[in-house]
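ARCHIVE CARD
Drawer: 12
Card no.: 0347
Subject: one protein chain, sequence and derived structure
Cross-reference: see card 0346
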Amino acid sequence: RVYMLDEYDKYKLFKLKNKEIAFDVDLSTLSCGLNAAIYLVEMHEDGDRSESNGAGAAFGSGYCDAQCPHMTFIQGQANTKDFIRRPAKTPELKEVFGAREGAHGYCCAEMDLLEGNRAVGVYTAHPCSHEGANKCEGKEECGDKEKGYKGWCDKDGCGFAPYRLGNDTFWGAGPGHTIDTTRPLTIITQFITDDGTEDGELIDIRRKYLQDNVLIENAEAPLLKSKADSMTDDYCTESNKVFDSKGTGFDVLGGVKGMGEALGRGMVLVLSVWDDNLQRMLWLDGEKTNIKEDPEDPGITRGPCKFEKGSDKDVKEHLEASGEMFVTFSNIRYGDLGSTYAPGAGVFFSEQKSDIDVDAKGSFVPASEDAQPPIRSAHTVLLGLSMVVMTASGLLLALFLSRSRSQTISTAHVDTSQRAWDQEQLLE
């Protein structure tokens, strides 16, 4: 994972209610079974630095998310209680043992701006019932969906995935798709409040895309009666009903409003690329997630990837046949609604307020007859991280965000040729 810092020993906290965040991404080499993720989690700003954890944010500690991961260390303490291999099931429903983990998990709210590859893309809200990062213990706190325990966080979340929602031509590789993932694109996520202010209640999470200088609105959901094209509480309730999703707990654990409360308090930006040899990433891009499911049932098919594919072996075979596999994130910026994709705005902005408003659909509305589109006056912050190229090489970096927010100051390029780097070289 890559984390964004505001200072050497503090994570950058993004507060995005009534704001938007945008980034450019190149997924052209990522096959089925791989997940390029850029997301926000409510980690502690200092990375849980303490007497027992001298590392803190500068060294990437303090991670948490809505899955309540059972990591080796939590809040500077070894997670050794009941440290055993936990039972798990493969997509073929075969009983196996997973990795060793302790009794405690580390839970916090999570907002996935993108999880995807060439075949599919999804954005997902995962609210939690507790503020900030919290150590859990037991099924009641950490959750166990198979046994009916929701836990403190919504592990499934409410996601908007065009392919799963019945639109299999919106996102994919090649010219037959609205979004052609063989070429770079820009993704914009907007967080709309009920009163149009940062203090309002989050009621909608909207999506827009830019490709080849064309603004593309989010896909509609053909499987839903409402044909929804954004994430509201009504959308989440309707999609769960159509998909017959039981026990996700999205509304009980806070819903869209709860996700907004976390965004109001501040969340840390995380970038990663990963695979999963056990579940084969079928929940993201597969024709079904377990052998008993029927792809004809609504919501079962997540993407075009074959059920039997997605293992480590498949990923390595694809790598040998097709060459390097990577994701590039670049031009990450955030600001007022409408400011990050204004016509002609590019990515270099001053820190002034926008001369335009954005209506309920996210369209440009001049504040007065004399107002101009915010070509140079958009209140947008271009982050000091210009580009991150990541591969599945397993390297962990924490990057420093410059205080000079109007210039590009750093580039990080991680590729498979750098696997020989030792820890000291990485830290340098």
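Annotation on reverse: Helices lie at 139-142, 233-242, 255-265, 282-285, 312-322, 423-427. The longest helix spans residues 255-265.
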